[in-house]
């Protein structure tokens, strides 16, 4: 993993991989190794993606006009990837619902958050997207880097998450570069102040909502109270400790000169592309609505 101060690599290609994953019943309700807390957090994350990624596309496309040709092409590829992600997680969420989970409360919460954001100027939505895209990219990095995060999971579900993680890393600079273009006339201090405040707000909501959403799903499995809290907090913050392990990368967002590609982790993409998960039952590339 090489460190650089350069922006998005000039030779980076953002490639939409139109994969279709299993539509039938999950292998078991607790598909993540029989663990209620692991199943809950991934289901809670997936519940946010159909609406959330449509919001990301909307926020970035609002500023596409006038962007340099390379960035305009990257925005187009980004929107295609996100549209496919929304489709596949919508299908995954239906599988979770068929297994007996009620995701309504989680989906209503994300719609509330997005409706609140949409009341602000479009550049605020872009800033929120930039912050959340950093979150998804550092989560994706950790997921691909450390196999323990998907250890014991249903194979098809794990393949879905690895595929999604790969593309989140690949397009991690698009929202940020769009933000830089949209705010190119802002003083540096104002740009940093806005992005820092938005990231802190987004982080608070992300941690609170995903935690409460996971606890709600655990409640649906009969695990509540101190037992639920201890299981979830241990899983997220101790072992395998996804949230603890992304803390350093999260802090980097606030440093002077930060750019998502300050850390070039394309080695994880190459490793994924060489894996069996990347080639398992691929679907042919098709046109996706809202892809351009």
TrEMBL record:
<protein>
    <submittedName>
        <fullName>Metal-dependent hydrolase</fullName>
    </submittedName>
</protein>
<dbReference type="InterPro" id="IPR016516">
    <property type="entry name" value="UCP07580"/>
</dbReference>
<dbReference type="Pfam" id="PF10118">
    <property type="entry name" value="Metal_hydrol"/>
</dbReference>
<keyword id="KW-0378">Hydrolase</keyword>
<dbReference type="GO" id="GO:0016787">
    <property type="term" value="F:hydrolase activity"/>
</dbReference>
<dbReference type="InterPro" id="IPR016084">
    <property type="entry name" value="Haem_Oase-like_multi-hlx"/>
</dbReference>
